[in-house]
Structure formats: structure tokens, C-alpha cells
Amino acid sequence: MKEDCIFCKIANGLIPARKLYEDDDFCVILDLGPATKGHALILPKEHYRDICELEETVAAKVLPLAGKIGKAMKKGLGCHGFNLVQNNGEAAGQTVLHFHMHVIPRYENGPRIVAWEPGTVSEKEAEKIVEAVRAEL
Ligand code: 5GP
Ligand code: ZN
């Protein structure tokens, strides 16, 4: 646990939160500033800053859990779909530096979120991008 981390404290029960689910590895809570009704956060109990630090054994459990929560939201809240959002780094909008996955229920005619305007990329630029990333894998 990291001393000054709010999500460490919440995930380990030191600060109260509305809990949807808990097991040995994770705590799932309602977001304090929900994008839509039922917006939840999957928090590992161990501190990892972001996905780059996350242990593979823990990472492997995140998607199955997100699916389980989303499925329960569809049944329990009547949402029609859900988004999984996971920000890494301040440049990407991460404000709490403890890995978390957002599970955001989506309702027909609900607010438009998680959207961007499609850009463009030239053939040459695309080739360079592929080379630059592949070289680091
Ligand atoms: P990020 O932008 O880092 O991906 O998302 C952080 C999320 O955590 C935000 O949606 C914010 O509303 C939520 N949040 C921040 N502090 C607290 C808190 O103390 N309790 C809960 N339940 N949610 C929080
Ligand atoms: Zn933490």
C-alpha cells in the first residue's frame, strides 16, 4: 500500500466508498463524479501506478472482472451497453495515479462520452509510427 494514495486507502477499507464488489485482489466502487448512472471503478488492492506497472497475474483478472461488472449493470441498471476506460499517465487524463479501470454504463439517448474526432495520417507517417513502436516491443 502506498501511504498517500487515496485508492490504496479506499481499496483496503481505510476510507469508505460505495462498494459493488470485493475479492482478494480487487475492490469495485462507484465513482464519486459519475459520467453516467452507475459509473464504477475497478481498483486493485495493491498499488500499481498504471498499466505499465501492473503485474501480469493481476492484469489477467481485470477484463473478466470488468465483463462481470458490466453484465451485472446491464441486468441491474438496465443500461444498454458499457464502456471500459483506462487512463495511463497525466497526459492521458489519469488524475489518480493508482491503476483503475472505469466501467461506464451507457443508456440509449444518454450523454455522448468517450468520443473523438477522427483525424488523418499519411502513408509515410503511418509507416514511421509502426517502425517506431515495433522497435520497442
Ligand atoms: P482518472 O481520470 O484518473 O482515470 O479517473 C479518476 C476517477 O476517480 C474520476 O472519475 C474521479 O471522479 C474518481 N475519484 C477521484 N477521487 C475519488 C474518491 O475519493 N472516491 C471515488 N469513489 N472516486 C473518486
Ligand atoms: Zn495506490
Tally of DSSP helical segments = 3
Task: Characterize the main sheet.
Answer: 5 strands, antiparallel
Overall body shape: globular
Strand content: 15-25%
State the helicity in percent bands.
25-40%
Order of helix and strand elements from N to C terminus: HEEEHEEH
Structural class: alpha+beta
Bound molecules: guanosine-5'-monophosphate, zinc ion
Computed Rg: 17 Å
Give the strand order, joined by hyphens, for the main sheet.
1-2-3-5-4
Extended strand count: 5
Task: Report what the structure shows.
Helix content is 29%, strand content 18%. Strand 1 (19-22) and strand 2 form a beta hairpin. It has helices at residues 6-11, 56-77, 123-134; strands at residues 19-22, 26-30, 40-44, 81-85, 101-106. The mean pLDDT is 95. It has 3 helices and 5 strands, in the order αβββαββα. It has 137 residues and is of the alpha+beta class. Guanosine-5'-monophosphate (5GP) binds at residues 6, 17, 29-33, 41, 87, 93-96.
